[in-house]
Amino acid sequence: MTVIDLQAVAPEAAIKAFEAKGLEVSFDWRDVDADQHARTFTVAKAMRLDILRDIRTAVDDALRNGTTLDQFKKDLIPTLQAKGWWGKQIMTDPATGEEHLVQLGSPHRLRTIYDVNLRASYAAGKWQRAKDLGKQLQAQSGQKVYLRYVAVLDERTRQSHRNWHGTVLPVDHPFWDTHYPPNGWGCRCTVQILTDRQLARYGYDVSPDPVIETRDWFNGRTGEIETIPTGIDPGWGHNVGKSATRAEAGRIFAEKLRTVPPDIAALALKSDPEVVREIQRSYAQWFDDIVAQGNAGGERRVIGAFSPRTVERLSDFDQSPENAAITISDKEVLHLLRDVKKSRNQALSQSCVRDLPTELASAKAVLFDTTDPALIYVFDTENAQTGKLVVRIDYYQRMRGSDGKRRDVRVNAARTGSIVKPENLRQKRYRLLDGTL
């Protein structure tokens, strides 16, 4: 039987988990919910993407090279000081318009950034490793995988975290949805991955279901009251591993829509709203990276699928798409963003382009352009205007395959988008396939 190595998490797993994060600009850490914190890289009051990117690059280098905290600060401080992101400054809160004296870069903040991101990335990598091990063991011997909560148990350890020390539960137990460490600012807790055989060897017993106490926490930024587990800091009551992998799962599922018949792909997306949310999360991370980098690398992503009704009605116009997946390339994303800068009145906003999977899934109408064959997705924008996205059916695109060779493939490509007058969509050239105008 294959011997499974249970060493500590390889740095590659932590690096992969960190690289999967998109960029999120925020004024206050409370502006970004707990789940989003796990999927994006954000630093409160780093309101410029170039500064956020500099900090992220430094964290990435620390993960890759095993950089110490002192070296991390030594490398990053001159860059932040040169760009003016250092010390205390007056900043305007975008949510309220009020000016505040705020702390930007400082040695203490860099220590927090270093500690939080390295611990969270290693925790996400360990979670993925535990899940992979579980699948492997189940296939080989039917064994289960367990996690054991491990606290440091010194004078700095919170009493609640000390109480959880030694808790042993299956990896898929709901306890780990909220209590998978780290569980707060400066939390040093981890988990130990164990198999059935190791439980017997070490004399560990599976714990009874823990009693989860909760408390209400008022988020002064959003005005919402959130229920969080007692003993866990606000913003930390989530599983960093699950949050990090959900967006990746959404991307993988979306790519599979290209390989199945159109009617099956259409039904799959329509029957499961959660799929749309995962595709949106994955796309938003990718979108943020495109905005930060400012250039296209030739990648194309699935952002939705035709509805069953649209697939059915396309046959009336002798249109039989190879698949139902709607895609967009990084080049097309940048094209839409350039339109935002050129035409403030007619272009889709940047936030609208970032939410394309959601806009497509909730489109109020789908039209077919009989003059210039394409699908027109019609939706309401955040400014109570009408937006449209033009999707070319079976559009030929030259793409590089996994073998490195470039070849022509057919995709349903989101090519252009704009604000449109509703009356213009009632022209005879447009035929309604799905929804209402």
Describe this structure in words.
The chain is of the alpha+beta class and 437 residues long. The protein has 2 domains: 11-202, no CATH class; 257-432, no CATH class. It has helices spanning 11-19, 34-39, 49-65, 69-82, 107-140, 159-164, 175-179, 196-202, 240-256, 262-271, 273-293, 308-314, 330-342, 350-354, 356-361, and strands at 22-23, 40-41, 88-92, 99-103, 145-150, 168-170, 190-195, 214-219, 224-229, 300-305, 325-329, 365-369, 374-380, 386-400, 406-419, 430-435. The strands form 5 sheets. It has a 7-stranded mixed beta sheet. A hairpin with a 5-residue loop joins strand 13 (374-380) and strand 14. The longest helix is centred in the N-terminal third of the chain and has 34 residues, at 107-140.
Question: Helices and strands in order, then pairings?
Answer:
Blueprint: H1 11-19, E1 22-23, H2 34-39, E2 40-41, H3 49-65, H4 69-82, E3 88-92, E4 99-103, H5 107-140, E5 145-150, H6 159-164, E6 168-170, H7 175-179, E7 190-195, H8 196-202, E8 214-219, E9 224-229, H9 240-256, H10 262-271, H11 273-293, E10 300-305, H12 308-314, E11 325-329, H13 330-342, H14 350-354, H15 356-361, E12 365-369, E13 374-380, E14 386-400, E15 406-419, E16 430-435
Parallel strand pairs: 1-2, 11-15
Antiparallel strand pairs: 3-4, 5-6, 5-7, 8-9, 10-11, 12-13, 12-16, 13-14, 14-15
Helix pairs in contact: 1-5, 3-4, 4-5, 5-9, 9-11
Domain Phage head morphogenesis: 54-191
Protein name: Phage head morphogenesis domain-containing protein
InterPro entries: Phage_head_morphogenesis_dom
